[in-house]
Amino acid sequence: xxxxxxxxxxxxxxxxxxxxxxxxxxxxxxxxxxxxxxxxxxxxxxxxxxxxxxxxxxxxxxxxxxxxxxxxxxxxxxxxxxxxxxxxxxxxxxxxxxxxxxxxxxxxxxxxxxxxxxxxxxxxxxxxxxxxxxxxxxxxxxxxxxxxxxxxxxxxxxxxxxxxxxxxxxxxxxxxxxxxxxxxxxxxxxxxxxxxxxxxxxxxxxxxxxxxxxxxxxxxxxxxxxxxxxxxxxxxxxxxxxxxxxxxxxxxxxxxxxxxxxxxxxxxxxxxxxxxxxxxxxxxxxxxxxxxxxxxxxxxxxxxxxxxxxxxxxxxxxxxxxxxxxxxxxxxxxxxxxx
Length: 339
Known about the structure:
- With 339 residues, the chain is α/β, with parallel strands linked by helices.
- The protein contains 13 helices and 13 strands.
- The protein folds into two domains: 2-150 and 318-331, Glycogen Phosphorylase B (Rossmann fold), CATH 3.40.50; 168-316, Glycogen Phosphorylase B (Rossmann fold, 3-Layer(aba) Sandwich).
- The longest helix is centred in the last third of the chain and has 14 residues, at 303-316.
């Protein structure tokens, strides 16, 4: 079976699809991946045949993809939530498709088109990687969902954090919303704790941050999937990838939302007890120190860690990418005949 995956050309939108795409490839399917060139490298390394449709760089519209649908003639298209144009193109070509989520259903007004028939996109099943206890209740009630366990994916890195007797705190502001000022503030707040702090600076060059305290390590890129199982707390912007990655390992979180779906993620996790949050007008180095201290178990604070571990157990019970890949034929144009 030939399966085409599509996504916006960013780590936050492409990486959530990679585990299922790899599982589909391992199941013997021919996998292609339509997205911009900025994320081709990890797709190439995993044998996922990336290409850039038409002249698109970031977004893909229906007209961009139509020639490639005619050329590839896929049996199934898996399109992430940021790609309603792909759903429209597949519908016009008569090719079945599945929406692939990247977290909680995003709220209105964050710059992504609504993924509803009213917006011109067909009502198709959703591969939902958000644990049901955190998912938007209206979405749970109205959408045809196929649960899929979120599996953190990140590019490998030769650097590894050396665990010490002190708690390990991971700080990241993602690749889109971080500023040197906010990252510096967070570093100053976290450095006052008796902890080891690892910072992924993303689009901010480490040199922009100047000298950092001895208990802080700054790297432009950290293999988040490798680091997360060892952390005691995560301080971040509230992006879906980091949110779900931290939940998968049962790590409590301090969320500093800046935009997009981050405020909704912070609200949902705080309500579940797995996180604390500081809104932009509440931010200071002292507040970050105080709130992060509340998350660290070695201070006797286990409430947030325990809540995160409950969600981690929920995630572990969701079907794995390998299990879902084994059922992809059910939604394909030409499913095989089974006895």
